[in-house]
Amino acid sequence: MNKYMLLMLVCTAFSAVSQILLKQSANQEHESILKEYLNWRVITAYLIFGAVLLVNTYAYTQVELKYGPVLDTFTYVFVLILSWLVLKEKITRGKLIGNLLIVAGVLIYTMP
Asked: Is 111 helix (H, G, I), strand (E, B) or coil?
């Protein structure tokens, strides 16, 4: 794995963090519709999304296009782990099987 693929994987983890921030914001009561969208969690999440977009665009200049979507699927794995750690959500059997299938698919796809 080259350093640009690793960079894309790190960006995938940051995308998962931003999704957790959005979920936390959605779970809270807000005083108004404006505050529902203009709070620190939502703003930070979208800033992270923007930064990830820019970094991934750069990384794609050094990574074969076929690997980008494969690396992006790890977002599901990171979201599962962060949801369990941060949001205290249960990891159901279906979620676990689905994520194991994702990891297995990535491993099969990237085998020489």
From this structure: coil
pLDDT mean across residues, the chain: 94
Structure-block tokens of residue 65:
């296009």
Mapped onto helix, strand or coil, the DSSP state of residue 65 is helix
Rounded CA separation 107/9 (Å): 14
- Distances, alpha carbon 16 to alpha carbons 29, 43, 48, in Å: 22, 15, 10
- List pLDDT tens digits, range 22-72: 999 999 999 999 999 999 999 999 999 999 999 999 999 999 988 888 999
What residues contact 94, with CB distance under 8 A and at least 6 apart? Answer: none
- Do 30 and 50 contact (CB within 8 A), yes or no? no
Where helices occur in the chain by DSSP H, the ranges are 3-26, 33-37, 40-59, 68-72, 74-85, 93-110
